[in-house]
Amino acid sequence: GGPRRLLLISNSTLHGGGYLGHCQQHIQSFLGQKVKRVLFIPYALHDRDAYARTAREKFESLGYGLDSIHESCDPVEAVRKSEAIFIGGGNTFRLLKALYDNSLIHEIRKRVLEDGIPYMGSSAGTNVATISINTTNDMPIVYPPSLKALGLVPFNINPHYLDPDIKRTHMGETREERIRQYHEEPNTPPVLGLREGTMLLVEGDKATLQGVTGARLFLRGKKPTEHEPGTDFSFLLTDSKPLSP
C-alpha cells in the first residue's frame, strides 16, 4: 500500500451550487485515473437509498462507478474490496454508531492507513476521519459506543465552521466559544475549523488547505489563528506545534 491519502471536505453543497459541485475538480484530481469505483457510505442519513442515488449520479458524471455499502450483504467485505471510500455528511452520531455496529472502524483504518486507498469525507464523513467526533455540530440523536472515530489524522476538525456574526442578537455560544470549552478539558488535540468551501488534502505526511474560504486553527492554550487556502498544515500530522505568525 501507499501512504495515506485523504480529502476532507467541509461541506457537500455550497450555496448556489449542486451536490459536491464546488469541489468536483479536487475530487477528480484526488481520485485520478486509477480508481474506477468508489465505495459510498451513506450511514449519516436515514434515507440511504435516496442518498446513494444522489452520490451515484454525481460520481458517474465525473467518470466513476459508485457502490453503496448499505446495498452490500457484507459491509466488511465491501470495505476490504474497495478501491476508494467516500463517507458523506448528515448526522455524525448516527454515522459513527453505524460504523461501530457494522464493525467497520478497524477495517476502514486498515484500508486507508495500511493499504493506502483514497478516503474522501464531507461534513460528518470528515468528522469521523479524525480522532473523535467531540467537535461536531450535530445533535446526539443516537448513542455510539464511543466518541472515538477513525483516527486517520491525529487532530479534530470542525466542519461548516462559522464566524461570529457581529450583528446577531442570538446569545448562544459561538462556534469559537464551543471549541474553547472543548480545549478547557485536559489533553485535547488541535481543532481545525474548516469553513464551507474549504477542504484539507492529506498525502502521506503532507497536509494542505484547499478551496476558497480558509480555516481557523485552535490549539489548546493558544489564541486561534487564521489561515488561507494553500496553507501547509503538515505539522498537525506529526505534532501540535503552532505555526509561526
From TrEMBL:
One of its GO terms (cellular component) is cytoplasm. It comes from the Eukaryota. The keyword Hydrolase applies. It is found in: Cytoplasm. It is an enzyme of class 3 (hydrolase). Pfam families: Peptidase_S51. InterPro entries: Class_I_gatase-like, Peptidase_S51. This is dipeptidase E. Hydrolyzes dipeptides containing N-terminal aspartate residues.
